[in-house]
Amino acid sequence: MSVEEEVMKLQKKLNKMSSGDGSGQEQALDLLKALQSLPVNLEILTKTRIGMTVNALRKSSSDEEVISLSKTLIKNWKKFLSGTGKETPPSSSKKPSSKEKEEKPKESEKKDKEPKKAPTSFPPSNTTDAVRLKCRELLVTAIKTDGIADSMEGCATPEELAEELEEA
């Protein structure tokens, strides 16, 4: 059984406990310990939304051990979010500036390829939300103009502008 399937199985059991009358705290503690031993990554966290379930269990629980272990799990999982958020924006902001330098000699070749690559340049940014990524893609399309790129030298790229607009 894959890690994701195991997490889903544990999540179903935890959901039943958090919606119940608060009984079964020993079993909840065992499930949380099992969850802690699994190699959970950011993809599994976003697909299963197990963090929401663990937080709901934490809020509904009266057992201090369950609350403490839930908090520990949530803090550890939040490190995934802050770790990816800190790593990707600097690399994504550095890459366009180095690309701009490379593009100047071969502007016509790179401009033809840019519109096709625009949607694929977003996933490294600091969001994994599909709706936000689509908004950025639409903003890039709206911002881009044909033939005026030469006069926009020194300005931010359409991708950078779209990211800033979407985050605002």
From TrEMBL:
| TFIIS central domain segment(s) | 131-168
Q: What is this protein called?
A: TFIIS N-terminal domain-containing protein
Q: What is any one of the record's Gene Ontology cellular component terms?
A: nucleus
Q: Which UniProt keywords apply?
A: Nucleus
User: Compositional bias of type Low complexity: which residue ranges?
Assistant: 86-95
| Amino acid composition bias (Polar residues), ranges on this chain | 16-26
InterPro entries annotated for this entry?
TFIIS/CRSP70_N_sub, TFIIS/LEDGF_dom_sf, TFIIS_cen_dom, TFIIS_N
Q: Which GO terms describe its biological process?
A: DNA-templated transcription
* Localization per Swiss-Prot or TrEMBL: Nucleus
Q: Does the keyword Nucleus apply?
A: yes
UniProt source species? Homalodisca liturata
Disordered as annotated region, ranges: 1-26, 80-130, 146-168
